[in-house]
Write a structure and sequence with these properties.
Elements lengths: L1 H23 L6 E5 L6 H17 L3 E5 L6 H9 L6 E6 L1 H8 L11 E10 L1 E5 L8 H10 L5 E4 L5 H12 L5 E4 L3 H10 L4 E5 H10 L3 E5 L14 H4 L8 E8 L4 H16 L1 H10 L2 E2 L7 H21 L6
Helix pairs in contact: 2-10, 2-11, 4-12, 6-12
Length: 325
């Protein structure tokens, strides 16, 4: 028995030294960031901006792998199963926190099966409408929706999307149930909003900002507590008449469970460097994205935020009586 224990201890120590040596050499080859959405979407664009800057700091290419499907859960499952060596990372948004409430069973645990690296940024959403709607301000919009709840259609970009979550929170905030029209993505939803086929919507400013500025749709408020620099004429919802209404699409960077801490620390350094880069800041600002405070670009901040968001959205989704799929 003593011999067996001795061999086990030696084997465990050898494995620890091997992992440490591997971490010290990290990275020695290209790194892949799994994005659980199709190419060209907001999360994909954000990842490519950050990945390019991180590759400079890491001195290795950072490649984006798009793997969409089932509100981000297909890509999340792929990332959770990846070898925990730092060469597969995972960048996801708010949907990582809502998946447990939207699906009866998942092949992974959003909290337990990933190593958090750091919070990254928030992309505010905007409450918008077709131009033909008579309401010009947020209070007027709320009054109109309450008076015409059976006639108004609310577009959203699909189950579990940021647009869908914002719609749920908005209807809860104004205590008014509207008829939802679910689309397969933001593009067709906004096209129909501009064409007047649907009435109102809530979606990321990276999708709605240009249309608001061009005057093809009307913006009422943004779902973040601070003013969105790219939309100076659209006030935060908390100031425009909906106190406490916050439905930004936050993003975080993760690695598979078991990734060595030295590797996580090295990736965190590269992420921080990317977020400090002037070109990155400018490109994110164009999208309406708001980087988090540097003190929140940490594993502990992301872990705490993710847990709190899982609980928050479980309450909202239960209240909306959505049946898990």
């Amino acid at each position: 028995m003593r011999g067996w224990l001795r061999r086990t201890a030696v084997f465990g120590l050898a494995m620890s030294w091997a992992a440490l040596a591997s971490a010290q050499d990290y990275p020695s080859r290209p790194i892949t960031i799994v994005v659980p959405w199709a190419a060209g979407g907001p999360t994909d664009v954000v990842t490519r901006i950050l990945g390019q800057a991180m590759s400079t700091d890491l001195k290795q290419p950072v490649v984006v792998e798009n793997l969409g499907g089932a509100s981000g859960t297909v890509g999340a499952a792929r990332a959770a199963r990846a070898t925990p060596d730092g060469y597969t990372l995972f960048l996801h948004n708010i949907s990582h926190a809502t998946a447990p409430s939207l699906y009866k069973s998942l092949p992974y645990d959003p909290v337990e099966d990933f190593e958090p690296i750091g919070l990254i940024l928030d992309v505010p959403q905007a409450v918008v409408s077709k131009n033909a709607l008579p309401a010009k301000t947020l209070p007027e919009l709320v009054a109109y929706l309450k008076a015409n709840r059976d006639k108004v259609n609310l577009a959203q970009a699909g189950r579990g999307s940021g647009s869908h979550l914002c719609a749920l929170l908005f209807m809860s905030a104004i205590d008014t149930k509207l008829t939802e029209v679910a689309y397969k993505g933001t593009g067709p939803a906004i096209t129909d909003l501009m064409g007047g086929q649907v009435d109102v919507m809530c979606d990321q400013v990276s999708n709605t900002g240009n249309q608001i500025k061009a005057g093809t749709i009307r913006g009422y408020c943004t779902t973040i507590k601070s003013q969105v620099a790219s939309l100076p004429d659209v006030r935060p919802c908390t100031e425009a008449g909906l106190p406490g209404f916050d439905a930004s699409v936050w993003h975080g960077l993760y690695a598979p469970k078991g990734t060595p801490k030295p590797v996580l620390d090295r990736v965190n350094v590269a992420l921080r460097a990317a977020l400090r880069d002037g070109t990155v800041k400018a490109r994110l600002a164009e999208l309406g994205a708001v980087p988090v405070a540097e003190t929140d670009v940490t594993p502990s901040a992301l872990r705490s935020h993710l847990k709190a968001q899982v609980e928050k959205w479980a309450t909202v989704i239960r209240a909306a009586k959505l049946q898990p799929e």
